[in-house]
Amino acid sequence: MQRYFAVDKDLNISDKDKHHIINVMRMKINDKIEIVYDEKVYLCEINDISKKDVSYSVKDIIDVNNELPVKVTIAVSLVNEKKLDFILQKCTELGIYDFILVSSDRSKIKIDGKENKKIDRWNTITKEAAEQSHRNIKPIIKGIMPIDEVSKLDYDLKLTCSTKENEKTIKNVLQNSTNCDRIIIVVGPEGGLTISEEEKLEKNGFIPVTLGNLILRTETVPMYIMSLINYEVALWKIWVQYYLNFQIWIKVVKYYYFWLYLYF
Question: Directed axis angle between helix 81-93 and helix 115-132, to 10°?
Answer without folding.
Answer: 40
